[in-house]
Design brief:
With about 475 residues, the chain is of the alpha+beta class. Among the domains are: about 100 residues, Beta-Lactamase; about 90 residues, Helix Hairpins (Orthogonal Bundle); about 150 residues, 2-Layer Sandwich (Heat Shock Protein 90), CATH 3.30.565. The strands form three sheets. The protein has a five-stranded antiparallel sheet with strand order 2-1-5-4-3, sandwiched between helices. A hairpin with a 5-residue loop joins strand 3 and strand 4. Helix 4 packs parallel to helix 5 and helix 6 crosses helix 9. The longest helix is centred in the middle third of the chain and has 51 residues. The chain is rod-shaped and about 160 Å long. The two termini are about 65 Å apart.
Length: about 475
């Protein structure tokens, strides 16, 4: 599986997925706020203007004869001439009276017809002089509902728009500041991510090229620090695995070379002694066969390890008496132990211990454990094999007075390729295979050791219970057989 990292794409994705969204949100907020404030200010101006022109509502209760006189009186007495202009319109929409004292401009207001039809109408725009204004025209009807004229107030929006523009500029400035802060903080944050990612990528490339000593130094305490620590741990594990692999290859090469050297040497010796020294020929053939068996066992151990790694290590179980297997394995090592000056003893249980197991695989485990006990025990030492039967399991304890295992290595001795003592023959995979076999028998393989004192290996296997494994029909069949008998 290939993993491709494009650092620039991170910045691009941040820009598209984060910054543009923030920009859009800020822009929408600025526009909505500006429109809201504009509407708020214009509504406030309209309210003030309507309050100033409130007195002209008196025209609504006049008739056609008194309309002009009342309008003149109101115009003359109007107190807010410096704040707002009020115009009196005739039935054609032309202004003929104004509170400013100046002659009104000619022409009908743009909102006149709408006011004529609806009673009143608003206008926001520009006058003939180009000044921005707000105006409102009120139609006046007599008691018969006849249109007799209108009055129109007009107020300048220049100051209001200047204030709105100032506030909008302030909002835009705030929006720009927010975007700038977002951009700077975002780029800083991305940079703080990309820098360690580049370091991680560089270290990963070194590790991929075989430099397992490469490490990532970081003072961070976040998730990236956790990633760096994980990669450093991975590199340490790979370094250890590489060392174990090299040690394994060296050990296996030595294990293969030793019997091959013996086979070749004794084979040549036997060949030269044919017809002259038959006793030497016979001895040579015995050594050749013995070393060939040793090679075969090593190759089989390697094949078992390969099967274990690929998940193809299987067991063919059947009810067996584990005592028989253990006794036969013990008998195999009595002569070897005697030659090395080691005392070996076996204490069988008081009754049979039937387990559901693969006899070949379990014997392979017993051979491996007892062979290690004899191999690591010096002359004058002791190897004890004790088998006991517990409530639902059989327990096999193999204890020696050998060199023992350093405390730091005990938890690793069942790992593949691991050898605590590299001066003694062995591939370093025997216990790993043995542990896997015991696991497939639903048992436990436990190791306790003290350096300089000895090692104790405990194997626990569940006892076979025929009643639990047999189905109802099978149980009935067995009971019938007993009855018939």
């Amino acid at each position: 599986m290939k993993i491709r990292l494009h650092f620039k794409s991170v910045t691009r994705r941040w820009f598209v997925e984060v910054f543009l969204i923030v920009f859009a949100a800020v822009a929408v907020f600025a526009v909505v706020s500006s429109l809201f404030l504009r509407s708020l200010y214009l509504e406030r101006v309209r309210g003030i203007a309507e309050e100033y022109a409130y007195e002209f509502r008196a025209l609504d209760s006049t008739g056609v004869d008194s309309f002009s006189d009342t309008a003149m009186q109101l115009t003359d007495a109007f107190p807010y001439k410096d704040k707002i202009e009020v115009q009196i319109l005739d039935i054609t929409g032309v202004a003929n009276i104004s509170t400013t004292g100046f002659e009104p401009t000619s022409g009908r207001p743009p909102e006149f017809m709408s006011a004529y039809n609806n009673g009143y109408a608003d206008y926001i725009g520009k006058n003939e002089a180009g000044e921005r204004i707000m105006a409102q025209t009120h139609a006046v009807y007599d008691e018969n509902g006849e249109f007799i004229g209108a009055y129109r107030w007009v107020i300048s929006l220049e100051a209001t728009y200047r204030r709105i523009l100032l506030i909008v500029a302030f909002i835009v400035a705030i929006a720009v500041i927010i975007l700038v802060i977002c951009a700077i903080s975002g780029m800083f944050f991305i940079g703080s991510i990309l820098r360690p990612v580049r370091e991680i990528s560089g270290a990963a490339r070194k590790i991929a090229m075989g430099d397992f000593k490469a490490r990532i130094e970081t003072e961070r305490t976040d998730e990236i620090a956790g990633l760096c620590e994980s990669i450093n741990n991975m590199a340490s594990e790979l370094e250890n695995a590489e060392q174990l692999k090299n040690d394994f290859i060296s050990s296996v090469s030595h294990e293969l070379r030793t019997p091959l050297t013996a086979i070749r040497g004794w084979g040549e010796t036997a060949k030269m002694s044919v017809g002259t020294d038959e006793q030497l020929v016979s001895r040579g053939l015995e050594v050749v066969l013995s070393e060939a068996d040793r090679l075969s066992g090593l190759v089989e151990e390697l094949l078992d390890f390969s099967r274990m790694q690929s998940g193809r290590l299987t067991v063919n179980t059947q009810p067996i008496d584990v005592s028989v297997l253990l006794k036969s394995t013990y008998d195999m090592y009595t002569e070897l132990a005697a030659k090395q000056g080691i005392e070996i003893s076996y204490t069988p249980p008081m009754q049979n211990s039937i387990v559901m197991g693969d006899p070949d695989r379990l014997k392979q485990v017993f051979i491996n454990v007892i062979d290690n006990a004899v191999k690591y025990t010096e002359k004058g030492g002791l190897v004890l094999i004790v088998q006991t039967r517990e409530e639902a399991c059989v327990q096999i304890v193999i204890k020696d007075t050998g060199v023992g295992i350093p405390a730091g290595d005990v938890e690793h001795v069942k790992e593949k390729f691991f050898k605590s003592n590299k001066t003694v023959r062995g591939s370093g995979i025997g216990l790993a295979v043995a542990d896997e076999i015991i696991k497939q028998h639903k048992g436990l393989l436990l190791i306790e050791s003290t350096e300089g004192v000895g090692t104790t290996v405990t194997i626990v296997l569940p006892l076979y219970e025929p009643a639990a494994d047999a189905g109802p029909e099978e149980k009935d069949s067995k009971e019938n057989e007993k009855t018939d008998g």
